[in-house]
Design goal:
The chain is α+β, with helices and mostly antiparallel strands and 178 residues long. The protein is 19% helix and 37% strand. The chain contains two helices and nine strands; from the N terminus they run H-E-E-E-E-E-E-H-E-E-E. A five-stranded antiparallel β-sheet has the order 4-3-7-8-9, with no helix packed on it. A four-stranded antiparallel β-sheet has the order 1-2-6-5. The radius of gyration is 44 Å and the shape is rod-shaped.
């Protein structure tokens, strides 16, 4: 071949050179193009705060107004009477007795209610020895915590309890309510 290549070879070589130049220029251009940087939820949010107050409702605590333990003429425990006030009728109160690990609820039938007077009910629970023994099994030489709670009707909300302690001496002799 004389110094001249056939025309077909030359056009193929030119195409390859042209493709190479084009590829290099694309690579060079790709290196200078800014890539998008990733961000994590970049935004602003303005909060508008209104001033004001609110009060959460708290079921009121009942008020115990009296607790009287009665002993017979021989000094043996007979009964205890617990009196308390509440803005709720008898179906909105609960009296529980706790002695050690034993807890019992006094039936509403054993609670007498009067009122309301000025929006307040007065509840009286007369608990004789027979009823207490049926609920707790043994009173002799024991201490029984009596707790009154208010219950908000239609909910599971219960007030903090008001308590008194019934102490019965050994052999049932002598009792007190504090």
């Amino acid at each position: 071949m004389s110094g001249r290549e056939p025309a077909r070879r030359r056009s193929g070589k030119r195409r390859r050179i042209l493709a190479g130049i084009l590829g290099l220029s694309m690579l060079a251009a790709g290196g200078t193009v800014a890539t998008a940087q990733s961000t994590e939820a970049l935004f602003t949010d303005t909060e508008f705060v209104a001033s004001g107050t609110f009060t959460a409702f708290r079921v009121p605590v009942p008020t115990i107004t009296g607790c009287t333990a009665v002993n017979n003429a021989l000094g043996i425990f007979e009964s205890v009477t617990l009196v308390w006030t509440s803005p709720y009728p008898v179906n909105g109160v609960r009296l529980t007795l706790q002695q050690g690990a034993t807890t019992a609820v006094v039936p509403a039938a054993n609670i007498t209610t009067t009122g309301p007077v000025g929006g307040v009910y007065t509840h009286t629970a007369f608990l004789n020895q027979g009823l207490l023994v049926s609920l707790l099994a043994n009173l002799l030489g024991s201490s029984t915590t009596m707790t009154v709670n208010n219950l908000l009707a239609g909910t599971s909300w219960v007030s903090v309890g008001a308590t008194r302690t019934l102490a019965v001496g050994a052999l049932g002799i002598g009792s007190s309510c504090t």
